[in-house]
UniProtKB/TrEMBL annotation:
It comes from the Bacteria. Keywords: Membrane, Transmembrane, Transmembrane helix. It comes from Rhodopseudomonas palustris (strain ATCC BAA-98 / CGA009). This is Uncharacterized protein. The chain crosses the membrane at residues 6-25, 32-54, 66-88, 95-117.
């Protein structure tokens, strides 16, 4: 398995997330795009984990600690904080903090993914 599907899916999730961030700052919400962002993010995380742990054809990475594994952890934290931010509607300040965490950790994970892909 190559890194191309992982890179395409997570790039699409990141681009859509940036667009959703612009809409959020304008006060507009598109629930369908939010759902697509969530599906792309979880799908990208799943394919990244598959790539890191190996595929049925036996291909696996041999690094004990790599940017790819750290990126996967950051994406998991980003997915969790984004999901909790959507549920935290009772406290607008808390929801904004969680959303800021989601954006920051997700972009850090994407940067590490790009560094990992460029090193392979």
């Amino acid at each position: 398995m190559t890194v191309a599907p992982v890179l395409v899916i997570l790039s699409a999730a990141t681009a859509l997330g940036l667009y959703l961030g612009l809409l959020y700052l304008r006060g507009d919400r598109k629930q369908g795009l939010v759902a697509l962002h969530m599906l792309l993010g979880f799908g990208g995380l799943e394919t990244l984990v598959m790539l890191l742990h190996g595929t049925p054809d036996g291909a696996a990475t041999t690094d004990s600690v790599s940017f790819g594994k750290i990126a996967a952890g950051l994406f998991a934290v980003s997915a969790f904080s984004g999901f909790i931010a959507a549920l935290a509607r009772r406290s607008p300040v808390g929801a904004n903090v969680l959303l800021g965490t989601h954006v920051t950790v997700g972009l850090a994970g994407f940067a590490l993914l790009l560094a990992w892909v460029s090193g392979t």
